[in-house]
Amino acid sequence: MGSGSWHMEKRDSFRIEPVRDIDNVLENGSLSIIVLGASGDLAKKKTFPALFNLYRQGFLLPEEVHIFGYARTKISDDELRNRIRGYLVSDKGASPKDVEDVTNFLQLIKYVSGSYDGEEGFRLLDKEISDNEISKNSAEGSSRRLFYLALPPSVYPSVCRMIRHYCMNRSDLGGWTRIVVEKPFGKDLDSAEQLSNQIGELFEESQIYRIDHYLGKELVQNLLVLRFANRFFLPLWNRDNIENVQIVFREDFGTEGRGGYFDEYGIIRDIIQNHLLQVLCLVAMEKPISLKPEHIRDEKVKVLQSVMPVEDDEVVLGQYDGYTDDPTVPDHSNTPTFSTVILRIHNERWEGVPFILKAGKALNSRKAEIRVQFKDVPGDIFKCKKQGRNEFVIRLQPSEAMYMKLTVKQPGLEMSTVQSELDLSYGQRYQGVTIPEAYERLILDTIRGDQQHFVRRDELKAAWEIFTPLLHRIDNGEVKPLPYQPGSRGPAEADALLEKAGYVQTHGYIWIPPTL
Fold it and tell me: Mean pLDDT, to the nearest integer, of 408-435?
């Protein structure tokens, strides 16, 4: 066969490939969703509300789905339902339809009490699941079982062992068993690998869904479309045009009762090593050969493996004044509540471009955004360089938006310039459209068997390899956090590091979300 005809045949087959080409097993039989840690805060505030919203939108059909809560707390079905009820809809202004939806949804929930390392509780759980599957006329082994571990990682190994021994479905008959695990996935490379080994001995990688809720955010999910479906970004997205990239997470409150938990991890483990690093992968990765989950995750791993070791002079740590006043925090804690870290990617596209990851608590604002700053325009005939550089900003939260900062002529008779923006604010452009919560998307992806927005084992390992040496130096007291005032921008040294990295702050321009 000649090369020309072969080429045409391949291109035709590629064009008709569906956007979501996922190698799912046959989806039939009942769906059992088991929330382990059902009485905890994560389950009440995130997991059950996400399941309720999927139910209301018709993604969880009452004739197919049943939800089981499992925890050590000895409570009845109705007690669990009453604990959850207030998190599903607001009591104020709830319509009769809302109340009816809540009531019907809660009837799908059954509670089982048991330990996380004991055979008896999980045998009882399996019996309840099996009885429900029989009641829905599912053939044995054809049902689907989704286990959501809303639990601390310390109990993952024992819980996974119990599921494997006593609660598995027989996937060879068309059903499946999948588990969802929450971060933190370890505290460093060794502990993450140990956890991965313990779970990996029990489940195939295709059954494990490591959830990072940032990958479910609307604007994060838009990154691949923006980069690879718009022609004008393609020639600009490289070291020839981009001066630096910032990925920022800011909170205007402190640990607020989570001090003891937070002090074990710190801001790098809590935010930067997972959420912000995942965003970096999507900003920096090459175009995958398709939208299949493995092809996308392959490209993310390549980015992580290209990141150079972190240098101490490209890190600023901070701890807000008053952090150690929390009685659950040690008086001489070295845990950072703020960090700015510069990562450098050693490849053809990004050589020389600093990626600035910045996260902090008790700062002067709350936001998460990606800020791509372009190089100066050569030959500045308008003498407008001091007004600021072009920037492409993706506002992840709050007030989801994306806007391009650019220089324009100021209206009037004079030839003067001013900074303005091309703005796509979601609240204005998509009025009446509800943006789903991240957990809704990710749970639905798990049911569909789509692992695109979940962290693969080699991806997790590569992420820990970047930060473990720095984290060990912090843990050993070799790198100290600088004090900063609550309500400030963080340590002044962090702004100096940004300037050293080549970031030029725009003075006199503030982006204001448009009003409806």
Answer: 76
